[in-house]
């Protein structure tokens, strides 16, 4: 079924098809994992939607970090999966007197009071050439884990909001000779710019030297970015992200859960709130290997002096038991339960994909402990744009 989407009348014979924009897709697999019908599949290049199977349920929309999924194009006939696999960009929509791309009918699930996010100001065809202002190693020198704080000067034409990501295009080509696809990095500074300097964007980038299974793998983009130093140039696209945004309401509570570089959007949001704090609380549950390998450890410790309810889990401190963020949530179950039922709480998860299931299980267990219906609460949080997950 190809015409399942927005309620805009189409001329006879035309249909509206859900398509994924290959120029924006970063192949993060979120859409395919979210698709309950099996309509979304991929080869080594493109993610595609089978119009025969897609039922228009929109489950694939909220997780897409770039908006590649948000295309509901008027077409003369449904494009086949084989055709979509061959695309490097979307075909032009029919001339139907309609907007080329209809915004997602479901909206992107941002908090109701969030500022309006702009996306796609710079594209692969027209990237921004940004200059690196500084690159600081955040993890101690003796650690095998290198995470860097990289500040880019993007100038005045790249407005962004806390929670959004930028795309970096690594130079060079893949094994098939195609230009590398962009990789996303969460912005770690508030909309007013890193250290209050407008146009400066901080990123928190981990140098990938092994895959998630621990086998050696030199990540293309993270090694490029971590190798850059002040004065270096980098092609930036975006910004991206229209749902993982913070409420613009000082009374809202923020419950933030992160591992590793997942701290980036939380840092941006906390800095935005500093000096503008209202009655709303901010609690952070953050997991890293050791204090010396925890990005922004000293900064966070300073915020914990009266502003932030900070809860740290360390997994590799010699002589100490391994602790993960989900265990910390259990230890603070009263706070977590209160936040889950408070209609003005906003929950953010960012970092390792592996953490996601454990955190959601911890929420379910805490709810059970407090006699609360997690299924209902979780569904309501999502529907109201109050539960945001960005894992990779
Ligand atoms: P590639 O050459 O693309 O190799 C990827 C492979 O490396 C994966 O298949 C996986 O097996 C392995 N791998 C090991 N560790 C990681 C890891 N941490 N992330 C991804 N793959 C890994 N990264 C950051 O460092 N900081 C951020 O703030 C950040 N924000 C992101 C926000 C979003 C919305 C998304 C989707 C991703 C984000 N990432 C972030 C991950 C980033 O986009 C890249 O995927 C990562 O840097 C690896 O890219 P690469 O080119 O170096 O590796
Ligand atoms: P671990 O020491 O077991 O790898 P990284 O430094 O690799 O980016 O990871 C950040 C932190 O997240 C580390 O403390 C790591 O612990 C932890 N971590 C790894 N897997 C999970 C998981 N499934 N749930 C929660 N935390 C995790």
From TrEMBL:
Its cofactor is FAD. Pfam families: Fer4_9, NAD_binding_1. InterPro entries: 4Fe4S_Fe-S-bd, 4Fe4S_Fe_S_CS, Benzoyl_CoA_Oase_BoxA, FAD-bd_FR_type, Flavoprot_Pyr_Nucl_cyt_Rdtase, FNR, FNR_nucleotide-bd, OxRdtase_FAD/NAD-bd. Residues 16-45, 47-75 form the 4Fe-4S ferredoxin-type domain. Keywords: FAD, Flavoprotein, Iron, Iron-sulfur, Metal-binding, NADP, Oxidoreductase. Residues 125-246 form the FAD-binding FR-type domain. PANTHER family: PTHR43314. This is Benzoyl-CoA oxygenase component A.
């Amino acid at each position: 079924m190809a015409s399942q989407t927005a309620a805009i009348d189409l001329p006879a014979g035309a249909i509206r098809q859900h398509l994924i924009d290959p120029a924006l897709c970063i192949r993060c697999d979120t859409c395919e994992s979210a698709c309950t019908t099996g309509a979304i599949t991929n080869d080594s290049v493109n993610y595609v939607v089978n119009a025969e199977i897609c039922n228009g349920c929109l489950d694939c929309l909220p997780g897409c970090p770039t908006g590649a999924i948000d295309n509901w194009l008027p077409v003369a006939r449904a494009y086949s999966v084989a055709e979509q696999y061959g695309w490097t960009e979307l075909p032009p929509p029919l001339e139907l007197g309609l907007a080329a791309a209809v915004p997602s009918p479901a909206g992107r699930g941002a908090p109701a009071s969030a500022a309006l996010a702009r996306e796609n100001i710079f594209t692969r065809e027209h990237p921004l050439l940004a200059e690196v202002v500084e690159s600081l190693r955040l993890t101690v020198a003796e650690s095998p884990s290198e995470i860097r704080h990289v500040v880019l000067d993007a100038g005045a034409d790249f407005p962004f909001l806390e929670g959004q990501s930028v795309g970096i295009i690594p130079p060079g080509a893949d094994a098939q000779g195609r230009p590398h696809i962009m990789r996303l990095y969460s912005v770690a500074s508030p909309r007013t710019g890193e250290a209050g300097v407008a146009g400066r964007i901080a990123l928190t980038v981990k140098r990938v030297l092994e895959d998630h299974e621990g086998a050696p793998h030199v990540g293309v983009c993270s090694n490029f970015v971590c190798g850059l130093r002040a004065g270096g140039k980098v092609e930036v696209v975006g910004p991206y992200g229209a749902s993982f945004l913070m409420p613009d309401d000082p009374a809202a509570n923020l419950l933030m859960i992160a591992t590793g570089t997942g701290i980036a959007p939380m840092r941006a949001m906390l800095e935005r709130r500093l000096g503008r704090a209202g009655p709303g609380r901010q609690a952070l549950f953050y997991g890293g290997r050791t204090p010396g390998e925890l990005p922004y450890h000293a900064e966070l410790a300073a915020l914990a002096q009266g502003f932030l309810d900070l809860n740290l889990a360390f997994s590799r401190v010699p002589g100490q038991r391994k602790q993960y963020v989900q265990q910390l949530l259990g230890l603070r179950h009263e706070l977590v339960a209160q936040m889950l039922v408070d209609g003005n709480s906003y929950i953010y998860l960012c970092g390792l994909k592996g953490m996601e299931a454990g955190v959601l299980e911890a929420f379910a267990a805490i709810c059970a402990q407090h006699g609360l219906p997690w299924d209902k609460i979780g569904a309501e949080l999502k529907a109201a744009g109050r539960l945001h997950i960005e894992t990779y």
